[in-house]
Amino acid sequence: MGSGRPASSPLRRGGGYSCHYSLADRAIAAKYPGSPVPPAPNRSHSLRSLLPFLWEFRGRTLLALAFLVIAKLATVTIPVALKLIVDRLNPVHHSLLVLPLALLIGYGLLRFASILFGELRDLVFERAALRAVRRIALRVFRHLHDLDLTFHLERQTGGLSRDIERGTRGISFVLSFMLFNILPTLLEIALVLGIFLWNFSAWFAFIIIVSVIVYIAFSILVTEWRMHHVRRMNELDSKANTRAIDSLLNYETVKYFTNEDFEAQRYDNEMAAWEKEALKTQYSLSTLNSGQGLIIAVGVTAMMLLAGYEVVHGRMTLGDFVMVNAYMVQLFMPLNFLGFVYREMKRSIVDMERMFALLDRNTQVADKAGAPALKVSHGDIRFENVRFGYGKDREILHGVSFAIPAGAKVAVVGPSGAGKSTLARLLFRFYDADDGRILIDGQDIRDVTRDSLRRNIGIVPQDTVLFNDTIYYNIAYGRPDANRSDIEQAAAMANLKQFIDVLPQGYETLVGERGLKLSGGEKQRVAIARAILKNPPILVFDEATSSLDSNAEQAILVAMRELAEHRTSLVIAHRLSTIVDADEIVVLDQGAVAERGTHRELLRIGGLYAQLWTLQQREAEEKQKKAAEQPVPPAFALNG
């Protein structure tokens, strides 16, 4: 009987990373409506997508098919050999019982050949199947990195990882079983029918045909019915997994608000819905197995009754009876397995649908055909009448224009929501401007490849998210082919060396998921070290010190100034004290340039920048005053 179990608990293994996006970024996702995965992918397209990967190993595939045919010919010959052996051993036909040695040896050789060529078939084809899984998984991985930021704002990491995991597993199943279980079973049925029609009454072939048709029809109908529950169970599985991973990635937030019970209840609610559908899936599976068993039992019984009748009336020998029984057992075993394969193939195709749908999703920001690489000779940047919005009815940038001369440091400041960070996103081509141009050394960034653009720009972000690996790995990520001396030099320039030297494991210290084992200042230094190692001609500092205390900020500012020397720098700042040395300060207000000039010039104007400066200076003075008013603990308290 075909066996199966409901999928295990949704919290098995999960992966993913957390990226922190602003509410403005999430609003941008609304500009491109639609779910991360198209809801109705094409199944035939999913299957056709596998053919090129098989064609790459067509020699192996054809050889495997040849081994398949040989194995099946040996398999269907086994009952014939068994019939001859039984007839030779039957004392009714022979007064002297002689051991048919040659037939017995031949019987054993046929059984061995059936197994041997089946194993050779699997061995030859395994490389093609594994390579196809590897190529498709790599293609999906690359495509996910190629998709625009809108997709990654919408995605649910836990569910996405589960879709890919199930999809690659489904590909392996479909490739192996479609080619080497369904096809061999159909070939075996055809051969057995031919043998029965040649040797016996047509009624035997009729019983086989009816049994096979009823069996296949029943399996298809019930499987189609139960796939509704399988799909629903998979959806709930991904949803519960997403809920669990999202909660674990936000561990600190859960603890801050003591919402462990709340999170557990939400997760349990998802699990309860999954459990309900999993039970329905198991009930439908039991119905399917029981019905298949009944059809097989009726078919085998009918064949045996007919064969027994023929033997009693002398139209068949005892060996014929044994051969019929052997064929029925031999035929219905793979046929029964065919029912399991069909069910699992349907399930695998459902799993593949979502993964292949990812490949059908096109990026909103793509390279033009034949786009050249960006050539940076000086590093001059110009924003010319740049307009960008979350939608037609909500424009965030209203014709922003300013220039950053080669080697200069230009800061962009303004109230929250003014569009400062959006400028950095546009410069990196995470989005394309709705109107206007961004030029680097006179080249429109939409006319060059994204890869070459991003290779020439380094960034120190506001929130540095590190890989769950060593400090060495995270610094080396700026230039993976760098040697150790370059990485250590970058760490020293970023004022990381003293911190690393006191660590027991030094550069091999693990930073934890998203770098949670490091402080904010330490993570920012790693980000600066990465940018130093990358050594780009253009730098972007996106509020790199906004979340740091004063002491950490001063240390980071020193490293940032050293990094920015002789490079074109765009500094997006919240704390105005960090950009007083900028060559020019651009003040954005409600998506437009309100003021521009040096720090002193803007203070002299007395406009928005001056107001922001005064407000921040007052806040700083109040903090210093409160710190000075804090009582100093008595000396004895320090000694316990």
Please outline what is shown here:
By secondary structure, this protein is α/β, with parallel strands linked by helices. It has helices spanning 23-29, 43-48, 51-55, 58-89, 101-146, 149-154, 157-199, 202-249, 251-256, 260-312, 318-360, 420-427, 450-455, 471-476, 484-493, 497-501, 520-534, 550-564, 599-605, 608-629, 635-638; strands spanning 381-391, 394-404, 409-413, 435-440, 443-444, 457-460, 538-542, 568-572, 584-589, 592-597. The strands form two sheets. The protein has a six-stranded mixed β-sheet with strand order 6-7-8-3-9-10. A four-stranded antiparallel β-sheet has the order 2-1-4-5, with helices on one face.
Question: Explain this structure to me?
Answer:
This protein is an alpha/beta fold. Helix content is 61%, strand content 10%. The protein has a six-stranded mixed β-sheet with strand order 6-7-8-3-9-10. Strands 2-1-4-5 form a four-stranded antiparallel β-sheet, with helices on one face. It is elongated.
Q: What's the SSE blueprint?
A:
Layout: H1 23-29, H2 43-48, H3 51-55, H4 58-89, H5 101-146, H6 149-154, H7 157-199, H8 202-249, H9 251-256, H10 260-312, H11 318-360, E1 381-391, E2 394-404, E3 409-413, H12 420-427, E4 435-440, E5 443-444, H13 450-455, E6 457-460, H14 471-476, H15 484-493, H16 497-501, H17 520-534, E7 538-542, H18 550-564, E8 568-572, E9 584-589, E10 592-597, H19 599-605, H20 608-629, H21 635-638
Parallel strand pairs: 3-8, 3-9, 6-7, 7-8
Antiparallel strand pairs: 1-2, 1-4, 4-5, 9-10
Helix pairs in contact: 4-5, 4-7, 4-11, 5-7, 5-11, 7-8, 7-11, 8-10, 8-11, 10-11, 15-17, 17-18
